[in-house]
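User: Fold this; tokens only.

Assistant: Input:
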Amino acid sequence: MFLLSAVAYPLVLGALCVGAGLAVDRAAGGLLPGALTAVAGLAALIAVAQLSTYVPGVAPATPYLLLAVGVAGLALGWQRVREAVRGRQRYGWELALPVVVFVVACAPVLFAGRPTFSAYMVLTDSALHMTGADYLIRHGQHYAHLDLVNSYGQYINNYYNRNYPTGADALLGGTSSLLGVPAIWAFQPFNAFMLAVASGPAWLLARHIGLARGWAATAALSAAVPALVYAYDLIGSIKEITALPLILAMGALAVEARWLRSGPRGAIPFALVVAAGVSALGVAFGAWTVVAVAVLAGVAVGDGLLARREIARLAALCGVGAVVLVVCAWPTWHHASGSVAVAQAVASTPNRGNLVSPLRLTQVFGAWLTGNYEVSPAGVGLAITDVLIAVTALAAVLGGVHLLRRRHLALTGWIALMVLTCFLLTRLGAVWADAKTLVLSSPVFILLAFAGVASLLRTGWRAGALALALVLAGGIVASDAAQYHHTDLAPTARYDELASIDARFAGRGPTLFTDFDEYALDVLRDLDVGGPDFSYPPIGLVGIDSGHGGQINLGHGRAAALRGYPLIVTRRDPAAVRPPSAYRLLWQGTYYQVWGRRPGAPAAIARFASRGVSPVRCARVHSLARVAASKGAVLVAASPAALVRIDLEAAHVPAAWRLQASWWVMSSPGTLDTTFRVPRAGAWNVWLQGEIMPTVEVRVDGRLAGLLGGQVGGDLVVPDTAAPLRIRLRAGLHRLTVSRSGFSLAPGNGGSAILTAIFLTPAGAGERQQLHTVPAPRWRELCGHRYLWVEAVRR
């Protein structure tokens, strides 16, 4: 799956974009610059996916329609493809640039060597896009049949049925299903591919700035992956990342405005790009469209295209463009009022999302020497970042002077208006919208700074130009490397296991999912999933829901509230509370358990929950027994698993590690050393809880129990339970060590490293919580024992 998702998929997507771009070029009369072929094809594919998913019956055919468009374009433009291959020496930089950008943008996945995605759980909006990508291809933009009781239906309805932009999601779903790649594993390569496509128009703009070959390639690479853009690529902001190449393409087409002097067909590429941007970002894309249109209007006036002899031809060109724009973005225009409402909500919401604080305007300058774009660098990193930002800002000023001296009015006007738009939008919008504006503006500031490099080259100071280019590009590369080093990667094996559960139990839902993991909405899409701690919890669950991201405790709440769930999927965690007695274990994997409600099993008529730490009081049992006796019920009690807990606070740890609450933050290489005692000999499972991205080594009495890494859940409130490590032990005292290794180039080596708990259970049935059933008159048998909950259940 790794080679299919990270290598084959982007290659196929690239071929489809080039093919569709060649078709667009043919339709436009052959005026499209080669560097814009892929982005024009991207726009065309988004239009096809939008229109096909708008008709529910046609939606499943979307992958094949995209394939047909791409293949047809390659057939029509095969001669041009052959010429590019033959002239690869001439076009070497231009052809190699997208590959380099893709490798940089997709580096966490490529160098992990497994299907995954980065910045895991930093912004779970990506879970919505994965879910929507699959839904749109299966059902199209049709939402009347949704079950609005559970989380899956609520998410789809509250976003897509309220005119949330679908352009990028439909294309992701259509292209990934063409190869049978799950959207969850195609997601990161898709976003990285968007930045690779952005390098085309960035290259063309760099050439117009006055940079040649390697200089232009360096500028385009830097503009495609500045720190803020790279951060949003890692967190999976698919709308903004897809809009970015389209915004740059509008700028390139405004600068390369010779199509204004052509026939009416010349407007097709520009109109397609605008339509795709509207489909991907909504009507908010209009802010950047106005900039490009204003520049084109200035070009038309300057070239005398508004003269009487030209006005009819220009009107025809605008008419064709308008028709293409309306048709290719029709799903958005047809619900324009809803799209406007979405844009207004984003622009005005006080909700900061995942942002700790507002982003800083200076982040548009590309350098940010910290692993987290949400917080400021510290110490030496802050000092270097300030210097890099100052150099980039000065280079941008020098670049502005350079452009004015060259009298390249279209390019100068577009950059100036883009900078002005950035300042205006960040003054008028809310924190969340401001962040998006900064992301979409950052490449322009980088290109403007590289215009300063062009200025030095023009004066003949090649050494100075080289030094400035190295500082600009080096700051961006170092910033991206820091984020690559600190990002958490999604746990591949866990989601593969969830996918197997979806295939095994498909159609047997609704299903209650107790883990805080909204990505399960996509992977368990055939089970009508409801998650009590999701943004949209199931309707009717009382007492179980503790809020977004909170701890789920199935021992709380009314057992009757679970009647609507034939299945419950829980983490395999002996320390967690098992479902009520009406459920039995159907399946157990490495990470999850699936519980099924026994046919005809009644819900408990009364119950109480306990922590399982102290013996239950007889008074509580007696009170429940009286209720049970009056209803002809029995008492069922769940005893906790036989846990051997390890006191982490008493362990020996390196001085650099710090204790946060009762958790150890393994902030540097070192070893935790502690002892524990087991009551009997045999096979035992060692369980670690926490957020453990870098690989750690677990040893018992010097023997290797196993290696753990990439075991993250993304939530410190509900720590992740890693897969158990089995080892045979004799009865008595033992020594346990957990060692974190030093620096490596592996992605996420500097990611989360927090140890919350360690405990052991006897392997096999000993890790499970046992049920005890007694008649109500014999209630005293339950007194003085530890239980997680006690229920009164009718026979």
